[in-house]
Every structure is written in structure tokens, then in C-alpha cells.
Specification:
- The chain is mainly alpha-helical.
- The protein is built from four helices and no strands.
- Helix 1 crosses helix 4 and helix 2 packs across helix 3.
- The longest helix has 28 residues.
- The radius of gyration is 16 Å and the shape is elongated.
Length: 107
């Protein structure tokens, strides 16, 4: 448990960086989903599914979820319908824990 608290203390020390990174990754992920949808419609070279999932997993799940809804992209694929919401919940829980542990005194 001390390792977890120490980890969140470290993260809370750099919370501004994590928020900026989170916003940046979600904007990039949303753009990548849009580019892939346009490429699919035009019959051009596509972004691989594994790269789309990787962007979602690397703090871009909110952008991926919005991209799926806005562009109607990858909404029928079970892999995306399951993994993107799971990643999004994990990332939201991460930030909830960051907020909770922000108030723990650092030793």
C-alpha cells in the first residue's frame, strides 16, 4: 500500500503535467480516429487497429470514445466497443485517485 501511496504522491507532484498530457493525448486520438475514418471512406491506407487501441490505452480513451461516436467509426467492432470504455473507466479512476491522494501529506 505504501508503494501505491508513494506513486500517487509522485504523480500528484506532477499533476499539471499529467492533465496536459491527458488533454493532448485525447485530442491526438480523436484526430487519428477522424483521419482513419476519412481514409476508410476514400479507400486510402488506413491506421492499424492496434495503433488505434494503443492510443486509447495511452490516456486517449476519451478521445477514442468521442471519435467513435462523432465519426461512427469502429462502433461495430467488439474489440473497440469493449476496450475503449474499459480504458476510459481506468483513466477516469486514475484521475479520481490523483484528486483523492492530492490531499495526502507527503513524507
Amino acid at each position: 500500500m505504501n508503494i501505491i501511496i508513494a506513486s500517487f504522491n509522485f504523480i500528484s507532484e506532477y499533476s499539471d503535467f499529467f492533465v496536459i498530457f491527458f488533454v493532448f493525448m485525447n485530442i491526438i486520438t480523436l484526430a487519428v480516429y477522424g483521419v482513419d475514418k476519412r481514409s476508410a471512406q476514400a479507400g486510402k491506407r488506413r491506421v492499424s487497429e492496434s495503433l488505434l487501441i494503443a492510443f486509447s490505452a495511452c490516456f486517449g480513451a476519451v478521445g477514442a470514445f468521442i471519435g467513435m461516436k462523432v465519426f461512427h467509426h469502429k462502433t461495430r467492432k467488439p474489440k473497440f466497443r469493449i476496450l475503449v470504455p474499459v480504458f476510459m473507466m481506468i483513466q477516469i479512476l486514475f484521475f479520481i485517485c490523483l484528486i483523492i491522494f492530492e490531499g495526502i501529506p507527503k513524507s
